[in-house]
Design brief:
Layout: H1 5-25, E1 47-50, E2 55-58, E3 74-75, E4 80-86, E5 89-94, E6 99-104, E7 111-112, E8 117-121
Antiparallel strand pairs: 1-8, 2-4, 2-7, 3-6, 4-5, 6-8
């Protein structure tokens, strides 16, 4: 599913306008700040590795063990970057590119969706 970035931008702008209108009326409503930058995960220099399934992500083979990847680590295509557990099955997620890990976009034990960016590789 492709998300239209223009629609997201309009929603963010509408929320900002709503916050401003509440401030003018003197009402105090705590609305959490949202990140307004929409980054493109696929550029000339960066490639993303996305989750192949819905599940829970684990960054290491077992609790307390060394993680599969760390920021700055060089990896090869096919290397396991993390595990996604789905229906009590541990699914190893391989890297789809060679390169250096620039960003890990998920945390250990976090639920992930299909096609969610897991890491960025340069």
């Amino acid at each position: 599913m492709e998300i239209d970035k223009k629609v997201i931008k309009k929603l963010i702008d509408a929320l900002e306008d709503f916050k401003k209108s509440l401030n003018k009326t003197g009402q105090q409503i705590d609305i959490p700040e949202i990140e307004t930058s929409i980054e493109n995960t696929e550029t000339e220099n960066y490639r993303s590795v996305k989750s192949p399934i819905i599940g829970t992500v684990y960054l290491s083979p077992e609790p307390g063990a060394k993680p599969f990847v760390e920021v700055g680590k060089k990896i090869k295509k096919g290397d396991t970057i993390m595990i996604v557990e789905a229906m009590k099955t541990m699914n190893h997620v391989p890297s789809t590119h060679n390169g250096t890990v620039q960003k890990i976009s998920v945390e250990d034990g976090q639920p992930v969706e299909y096609d969610q960016v897991l890491i960025l590789i340069e």
